[in-house]
Specification:
By secondary structure, the protein is of the alpha/beta class. The chain has one domain: 3-Layer(aba) Sandwich (Glycerol-3-phosphate (1)-acyltransferase), CATH 3.40.1130. It contains ten helices and eight strands. It is globular and about 60 Å long. The two termini are 24 Å apart.
């Protein structure tokens, strides 16, 4: 435990070790990505996918070991007892900080299938990262704007169909799809600008989640409703705070919820009734989450 070191030194060491971990593992990732690309045989692709997911889990695991070595964080994890790597999950979480993703990866790595995000299809051309995302089977979204559909009505419904085809590989391999419903990090300024009805949250963006459930409804039946709180932090925190050990306590509350059957494979854009019902369900989830955050913060204050 090197928690006694000054925060700037710990942050620098953490960033350097994460970079070294990335540089060591990336060539192996690239090798199996290329094998997967040039040998489009189902058995080879499945084998490469297993190896690639293992490489990603090792990368996260080593990063977690770095954090454990450099920092002393009190982890308060609730509800992670019945998770499985053999199950398909949709995960959503409130978005407090850039530290949210590494914190969630710390808790859920090897507990559930590797977290994957829906990405815009243009991101596949990002140097190096695009190859890594493709190799790890991150789903790339095909979205057409209302203006494009107005000009070419034949495009209607093709975005969902294309994404469903891209996600077909997940039918036989468990996957976890992750999405921040707020779409951006919470700040008091954003909360005020939105006139958010929630004390600790921004308004949820139901459309992105609806797109995921519409495209993958046959596979995703269970949602992990994750709430993350950094007790005692009264200012905006970032990834540097996480790397340098300035975050001393992290609470991660996990609620396992079955997704209502009417929302699996739904036509969100073209069914007003479905859209209203889904937005109501999301609003109820968010109201519960806001109350949960308030309770966790009050509990922390009472203990201090």
């Amino acid at each position: 435990m090197l928690d006694f070191l000054p925060a700037p030194l710990k942050g620098t060491l953490a960033a350097l070790l994460v970079l070294i971990n990335t540089l060591i593992l990336f060539p192996f990732l690239l090798l199996f990505a290329l094998l997967k690309l040039v040998l489009p045989i189902i058995a080879v692709r499945k084998g490469c996918t297993l190896v690639l997911n293992t490489i990603a889990r090792v990368w996260i695991g080593v990063n977690n070991l770095v954090m454990d070595t450099l920092h002393k964080v009190e982890w308060d994890v609730r509800g992670a007892e019945q998770l499985s790597r053999e199950h398909w999950y949709f995960v959503t979480c409130n978005h407090q900080s850039w530290a949210d993703i590494p914190a969630i990866q710390y808790v859920l790595n090897s507990q559930i299938p590797l977290l994957k995000f829906f990405l815009k299809k243009q991101l596949i051309w990002v140097p190096l990262l695009g190859v890594a995302w493709w190799a790890l089977d991150f789903p790339f979204m095909h979205r057409h704007t209302k203006e494009q559909i107005a000009r070419k009505p034949e495009l209607k419904g093709k975005d969902i169909a294309a994404t469903q085809a891209a996600c077909e590989k997940f039918r036989y391999t468990p996957v976890t799809v992750f999405n921040f419903m707020e779409g951006t990090r919470f700040t008091p300024a954003k909360q005020k600008r939105q006139n958010s009805p929630y004390k600790h949250l921004l308004k949820p963006r139901a459309g992105g989640t609806a797109f995921v459930l519409g495209a993958m409804g046959e596979m995703l039946h269970t949602m992990l409703d994750v709430t993350i709180v950094y007790p005692g932090q009264n200012r905006s925190i970032g990834i540097w705070d996480y790397l340098s050990g300035r975050i001393r306590t992290i609470v991660i509350d996990i609620r396992v919820r079955e997704i209502p059957s009417q929302f699996l494979g739904m036509d969100y854009e073209n069914s007003r009734e479905t859209r209203v019902e889904f937005q109501r369900w999301v609003s109820e989830l968010w109201a519960e989450k806001d109350a949960r955050i308030e309770a966790i913060k009050s509990e922390s204050l009472n203990q201090s």
